[in-house]
Structure formats: structure tokens, C-alpha cells
Amino acid sequence: MSEKIEKDVLVFAHPDAARPQHLSVAAARLITLAREITSGKVVALAPSSISSHHFSQVGVAAVRYFDPEETGTWQVGAVLADLVGSVVRSGDFGVVLLPSTSWGRDGAAQCAVILGSGASVDVTSLKVVDGKLVAGKSVLDGTWETSYYIRRGIPIVAMRTTALSAVPVAEFSEVETEDLQVQLRESTKRIQVVSQEDTGSSHAGLTEAPVVVCAGRGVNGDFGPAEQLAEVLGGSVGATRVACEQGWIDRAAQIGQSGISIAPNLYIGMGISGDHHHVCGIRGAKKIVAICDDPEARIFEMADFGVVGDLFTVVPDALSRIKPLDA
Questions:
Q1: What's the CA gap between 280 and 283, in Å, rounded?
Q2: 200, 249, 255, 307: least surrounded by Cβ within 10 Å?
Q3: What InterPro entries has UniProt attached to this entry (predicted)?
């Protein structure tokens, strides 16, 4: 049996973007991880829109609800840090778990400052070893895998949730709920959100997508095959730096050293040679499939399955063989 900590775990649980009364997949994955590492309670910090029923399904013992109208948007690091601080000061927690999104990373850093703790972001694994929470992540552009622990205060950990699984509990139980009395810092109160813009980008969920189809220089500006394959597999479309610099797709899709890092269950690269700048962002993928017409392409060295051929022939053939989920 794996080791566990005895203290409670606090998880920030954000809602599904399309259904605000539901938990996001990322939040359900974080809660599942929390259950695995503690013998104490899993406590969720969540906006009041999420129904407590959804928390009982994933084993949350208690929920501390906040009103976004009162606090302002939680997608601002300062607000998120104050929300977490308000809960932590009233309990005995062994770790705080956040998603490693842009706002999650920002919030983690500010949480560490106000709580006098240490923070780590882009973490892909978390386990208990000899009573310590040991985190794992890749560093130095993905060339090394490291394991470490935070020595001071309550660890603030922002996880790459695509490396995790969401598992419901066998038996549902009643969830304790409480409205949180939020203590905002004076500096936080001075923050004003002037506007929020939905870019409409289909790439915003890349860090959470279970399947990522990525296109590079070899598509020559034609993202049709990538988009079709992603749609059939229920995934998202990403791109290399070159594809973004050419203006073929917006920057939000860029994966790699100066873009985002992903850890999907399945990564499919098409027309990608395997430049170090790109592959350092996909090392967290569980399975890597490469389609490229160059048999010497470096991406084949790390691929679990490779196809040497013209992607404009290979992908349509693959699509004709994939059965729809409802077939």
C-alpha cells in the first residue's frame, strides 16, 4: 500500500467552462490525486456555482464555497492566493493542489509568498516517500526528470493535470459545505478587471486535452488533416514554433520551449522533424505517434509508433479506418 500523509489536502476546484455548475475534468483529476496521497480529508475550494453533488461523486469531504461576485475573478493570481490563504488559516493542511494553468502558476507563487511556504509548478507526479511529499517534473528543456520536496511550510503544488486520471468513488457520501469568509489583501482590492475576452481559440485546453494532434512545417499551412483527426479523436490541435511564426495558426497553440508543455495520453505529430525546441514540450505524453516523410527525422527516436510517409496520404487513410465513438 502506498504511503499517505495524515493531514488534509486542499484542492482548488474550478468549474467546467461550458457548464459552470459542473467540475472541470482537471479539478476531478486533482481531487483523485488528493485521495491517493492522504488518509485525511479532501477539502475543495470552489466557486459557488458548482453543485455539491459533483463533489460527492469524487470523494470530497468538505467544500469551502466563495462568491466570485464578492471576490472578483479567481483567474487572477492575487485573488486566488487570498482565497487559498483564507482556507489554509482555518485548517490543518498538508498540501495545496492547483492546476498548472497560467492563473494556477501565478496563484501558486503568490500563495507561497503570503503563507511563507514553497511552491512548485508544472509538476507531473506527486507521492509520499518516508513521510514527505515528493514531486516529480522534467527540467532543463525536458532532458532531466527530477524528484524533490518542499522543505518549508505547506507545499503549494501546481499539477499538470493531463498526467493524472479522474476516478469517481464507489460510494457517495454527504459533503460538508461552508461559505468562506474571504480575507482579501489591500493590494488585491486595488486590482480591477477592466475587461475579459473570450478569444474563441480551440487551443486553450491543450494542457488538459487527453489527445493532442500537433502540426509542423510539413503541413505547409494546411491544418485540415490535423483538425479532422483531432475532432474524430476528441482532442485539441497544437503546433510547432515554425507553424505559429508563419502565421498558420495562433500563438496559443504553440508547444515547446517558448510555448506550453503538455502531457496528454496520446500525442500525434504530423510534419514535425523533432527539433529540440518542440520535443521538450511533449516529453510528458504517455504515447507519442509521429507521421513524417523523412525517415531520419529525430522525432522517430522518441516515438512509440512512427509512420514514414506523406501526411496528406497517411491521415486520410487513418481517418477512413477510425470508427466514430457512437458507431
A1: 6
A2: 200
A3: DHS-like_NAD/FAD-binding_dom (IPR029035), ETF_a/b_N (IPR014730), ETF_a/FixB (IPR001308), ETF_asu_C (IPR014731), Rossmann-like_a/b/a_fold (IPR014729)
**Radius of gyration for the alpha carbons in the chain, expressed in angstroms and rounded:** 21
Q: Which residue has the cell 504553440?
A: 254
Residue 206 C-alpha cell reads as 491543450
What is the band of 198 on the pLDDT scale with cuts at 50, 70, 90? low
Q: Across residues 46-70, what is the average pLDDT?
A: 92
Cα 205–Cα 207–Cα 209 angle in degrees, nearest 5: 60
d(CA 267, CA 282): 8
Among 289, 55, 102, 324, which residue's Cα sits nearest to residue 205?
102
Query: How far is it, in rounded angstroms, from Cα 67 to Cα 103?
Result: 18
List Cβ neighbours of 326 (8 Å cut-off, separation of 6 or more). Answer: none
pTM of the model: 0.77
Place of cell 513521510: 131
Residue among 39, 34, 36 at smallest CA distance from 10? 34
CB 200 within 8 A of CB 84: no
pLDDT tens per residue across span 288-320: 999 999 999 999 999 999 999 999 999 999 999
Q: How confident is the model at residue 16 (pLDDT cuts 50, 70, 90)?
A: confident
Q: Which residues pair with 212 in a beta bridge?
A: 236, 267
Distance CA 60, CA 178 (A): 13
What is the C-alpha separation between 174 and 75, in angstroms, rounded? 29
